[in-house]
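Q: What would this complex look like in 3D?
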Amino acid sequence: MSKYLVDKFLFTIDRDPDLVERYREDPSSTVAWWEAEQANLILNCHAGERSTWLSFTDPERDALSSHDYVALFELGAHNFLLLTLFIALFERDYAEPLAFQREFAARLGHWSLPYPDIST
Amino acid sequence: MRVATIAAIIASTHHPFYLRASTAAGEDRPPFADEWVAKIEAFRETLTRARPDVLVMVGSDHFHQLWLDNMPQFLVGKAPFYDANYYNEQREFGLPRMTLRGDEDLSAHLLRGGIDLGFDLAFSNELRVDHSITCPIITLRPQADLPIVPVYTNIFAPPMPQPKRFVELGQAIRDLVESWPSDQRVAIIGTGHLSLELGGPRQFGPHGPDPEFDRKAVSWIASSDLDAALAEVSLDSLWRPGNATHGFMDFMLMMGVAGKNVKADYADSLDLFHTMEAYFTWYPEGRP
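A: Here is my prediction, written as structure tokens for the whole assembly.
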């Protein structure tokens, strides 16, 4: 279980316009590159001072590699990060305003409270 | 010794779509835009007529600069300038890049005094603020001409402080501003949310996800009924009205600033798609 790392992926992709496009176009190789090169960067430290222990579980890697936001919600990804990034990825493919956001909600419609725990 | 005057206390929702909705024209203009603009302009007047010199701005970073490797619960900015808004806010909401001036003297006073009162406040000397601060600038002071002191709270990343702690911090901010040796008129402005769902099955409905909670919350805030709010609201209970409803704790902080059972001098709300908007102003010195 590495919810923190899933959130770190969503966070670092969402804030970088080039990475948003790269993740949209080629999710599985972006996830593989990110896990190999970026996952252990400590964001406020020099790149030489990396962590040594962070990696995705198989379900996390699969969910990220397939843009499966329902699975990511169920794995406890932070709801705000998840929504914001997926709006950036897919809202443009929908003609009506908020249509993607409403589909996102509908695909989670089988969930009632309590939702998966987002604590890290 | 001269001390600062509290010109106004303002609590508001912050809706990042306001700028886009209010400036859209023709087919792009949503049907609710005119009513929304009228309400915002009336609300803005409650700040304008208080003639503030400096703004204490309570908000919450939405995972922009503050991250889970080093997450403060409460943080006060202390810098001469604050750049504002991020690429992903420009992308999603059309919010422009801004630069706001800071008031380092008031920041230093809040930090020293807050820490001495038992709040182990984090601080930042280089803070890029986000839409939790810029939305109320856009709605209440669009000329963005006054120096600010940003106060960030964690309403986003569990474990969060208890609601009671938000109230206590609000009371402390009130006391500290009232003891600031200055002839400035200070407005204390805080924004949060009523019931709100983001990234969950109840998001972006025709109303907020829990209209019953919103009705109660508006009534608690309008009368600063801290006993009722604290009796019903807990970190666990706030998941029920919507998975982003912990932003209500920023309203509780502002009720702490206003004072227990002090009725707001101005209260308004607007039932929008997705969330209810709510606007409150108190004048501790009497209505200007």
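A: To summarize the key features: The two ends of chain B are 24 Å apart (CA to CA). The mean pLDDT of chain B is 97.
Q: Very helpful, thank you.
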